[in-house]
Amino acid sequence: MGSQKLISDRQQIEAILSKAKFLRLALSDAETPYIVPMSFGYKENVIYLHSSRKGEKIEILKKNPRICFEAASEIELITADDPCKYNVRYRSVIGHGQAKFLEDYNEKVEGLTVLSEHYGKKGPFEFEEWKVNRLCVIKIEVEKMTGKESGF
């Protein structure tokens, strides 16, 4: 049960991302690492996130846009009589990239559309302009991604 397998096939990696409900965004301000779970959307090697315009992650990203992310799907704890034989079954993706704050209204709408579609909504969408303008939409160009699975 405990064997881990590296996944390098792009289609398999993207399938894991499509099933993942959240990703964990890892940041660093050169002093302290910071990690935060976020909802996301993925399309054509780009991850979109949305957020308030204020907060710790925004301040860190302004100083250092380099990020790492992790997303997992099909997570299951496998128990046993012996606690030392517990295991976790999962598929996950770890990637790296650079975050960019989107300012263009149409680019922000594109990111919000990808994000909405990730959670099963079907477009076309009509976003209220004032709401889009007050949101922070973050675009991450993925530079590299690898996948891993265990227990399959």
Automatic annotation (TrEMBL):
Classification via InterPro entries: Pyridox_Oxase-rel (IPR024747), Split_barrel_FMN-bd (IPR012349)
Superkingdom per UniProt: Archaea
One Pfam family linked to the record: Pyridox_ox_2
PANTHER family xref list: 5-NITROIMIDAZOLE ANTIBIOTICS RESISTANCE PROTEIN, NIMA-FAMILY-RELATED PROTEIN-RELATED, FLAVIN-NUCLEOTIDE-BINDING PROTEIN
This protein's name: Putative flavin-nucleotide-binding protein
